[in-house]
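Intended use. Records like the one below are meant for learning the mapping from a protein sequence to its folded structure. Do not use them to infer anything beyond what is encoded.
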Amino acid sequence: MRLIAALKGANYTNFLLVGALSIVFYSSCKENTILPPDLVPPIDNINTFGDTIEVISNNFLQDSLLTGGIRNGVRVSNSPSFFHALGTIANDQYMGRTWASIHVEVLPPTPGYTFKSGTNRVIDSIVLSIPYKNAYGDTVSVSSTQNFKLYRSLKAFSRDSSQYDFTTDVPDYGNLLAQKSVNFSTMKYDSVLIGGKKQEPQLRFQLASWFKDSLEAQVALGSSGSLADYTKFLAWWNGFYIEGDTLNGNALGYFDTYRTRMSIYYRYDNTSGQPDTTVDVFSFDPTNCNRFNHITRNYTGKPAAAYINSTAVGGDSILFLQNEPGLSGFIRLPGLHNRENVIVNKAELSFVAVSWTDTLLAGLIPRLQMFKSDTAGNDSVLEDYNVFGTGIVDGRRYALTVGGVTYTQYKFIITHSVQKIISQKDSTFRLKVMGLNIGYPAAFRSIVGGSANVNPFFRPKLYLVYTKIDK
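Structure written out for the chain above:
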């Protein structure tokens, strides 16, 4: 596994909200009882007590990642730090197959675009390029090569609507624009020379000659052609669609589609009658263009398949956690609302990764995040993030050594929420937990113990430190 990035966020709206809370706010809770961790009183079993609370955990498929367009005021296409996945992981031994394709648009540098003045113009080539960021999966094996094909998109996607991981493009499969083989084991070292200058690693497609002819014809039409203004251009050319072989591959590459470029290289005779060369660049324009990711998971025949959207009363023995889109853990805290009212000094919810999880090619999630989920299935940012910030709520991965054996543990401090459950007798409170994703969808996964695990050590635990209220 070679993705060198921290991850954050499940569905993209929540991802931005949680991200905005990364500064720790030590504002006080409405109940005025929540204490910073360094002020939690010691357990003396006279005034302050410790107790482990029952947790029920089930697997749940979370398939609603916004990858393009807009929702609830959040416009994902305008975020330069949200990257798009491309490629296939064909055979994760626990979670099956994942593959991803990309839709991206470009615009002329100006409305009413024309080629530079001169005569005898000849286009040498048109190249679509997208900078490479990272890869997730097997980037070590020499078999890391995947073949990608580029097509014209036949469907218009408004940037004022929402495109999710399950949104499908309509490519013009009858007219291949270009194809390119990429080896993710070497791509981060690859570079190209353009104009004598070394460029960053990038995915580059040299477009077919029929596209050159079509573009030239539109330019020649002047004000009646598609390059007269941006609206006409996007109506003529809905964008590009890139896909790979959905059955073969062992890594996902991540590309900076925000910096997509279409470069037109051409020769012409300038106004002095001398031969000259130049390049015109069409770019992704966040004010007018759209971009999105289509990501598919297929768990068929793998251990995770038997647990998807489980309704087991006592929960599942293991939880398969991924960055969205993918599997999450649905968490219930039965009976907590029936406890006598107390001052909750600390509530720590922890998960332990099962020891048989492989980490060589599919590394563990660096950090988990948590959402509140209502009875209708709607998710919202957990209030604890607002009260204390992500630094206190945590969710990071830690090493836990027991009996000389080191395990991976994830911990959350959810004191505010637990206090409200007890004080307000809230029987409807639910949680979801999954990978925290900063703009790298579908990367990383962890397998942790569930509430029905035969080994109590691996079960999720909610540990309370609380003070009884004098009556």
